[in-house]
Amino acid sequence: MTQIFLGYILAFFHIKINGFDLLPNFLGYIFIVVGLAKLEGIHFKKAKPFAVFMAINSLLFTIGGLMGPSFDGDIFAFYNLFTAVIWIYTSYLIVLGIKDLEIITGRQLGFQKLFTIWKIQTILQVITRLSIFTQNEILMYLASMFTPIWIAMNVIYLVYFYRAKTIYENKNDSNHIKVDEAIKPKQRKSTIKKALLIFVTSVILFVFLWAKGVFYIIDVQTSPNGKITEIVFSQDVSGTFPKDSGITMLTKGSFQGTTVYENASYLNMWWSPCSNYLVKSLVDEEPILILDSFKTNSGSNLSTYIRMSMASSEEFTNFMTDEKQWKTMEVDFMKWNDEQGSMTVNFEFEDYTGKRQKGYLDFNWETGAISNIVFE
Questions:
Q1: How far is Cα 282 from Cα 334, in angstroms, rounded to an integer?
Q2: How confident is the model at residue 139, as a pLDDT?
Q3: pTM
Q4: How far is CA 181 from the centre of its chain?
């Protein structure tokens, strides 16, 4: 059972450095195959070919990933779901194999506890896989929130599996020590162990949530079509641990990406009705508008483009005779209009006489044209 235990560790956890997994899955599945071959019980024998499939599948994808191809699309999503079902069934057979060993040895190895944890793991894995397959925002949000629970369940499963392994491998064939006699010396320490397990799990959950920046989320907005979600963090969470050196904007859904704005602070953001554009209002030494285009998968300084269009209009050049006045120009987002790419923005500047001028206008991002200029 030691090989299966080691295999679970490699299959459950991932430590990546520069994209390279130090705990490759395929090695874990190979360990599991070797362990299954050494154990008695019909369910272990049934699980072996499925574990072999998982080992080969994982090895091929590991090699493919090193060679650089991109695995994407509906076919890959469906295949990913299929392999998840295979792994769920394999782990189910292994748990039933523990029950076989209980019958063979006459000892309590903790089948019921392992089976209960397996059920929870299965529910979490089904939610995660379905979120990837369907790209459903609700399922994706649930999957991201359940990640710490998934890690905790894996840790608890390993603890109980290790306990079963220890009891099974310490059997005395001549005396056939019974269940209660085998675990009786450990009962005094069970309460302390459970408390320690809860404490360690809580610390792991807290560190995981902190490292992922969950405690620094300040805004979450989903596009009108429900396909893209923008999450804003008050710190730089792009590294291993959060840093107080800017803000992070994480894009999830049909578009994926992480953008860090160093030394900036967040004000607000607005999705266009067509879901093609997102305007973000930040402060980086001065207020600035950023526009993300999901039509072209690019980001631009919206404030600069609006000023460039203003510079070609006499209604503004009549008020500003040199660069000094243009430096006072501030624009702020007001609302999206019905026409695609069109928005209304506020403006305020100091003219050549030193008087503050303000008003609003319509700006079309797709054409670069300004219209409906109103001075207040």
A1: 14
A2: 64
A3: 0.51
A4: 46
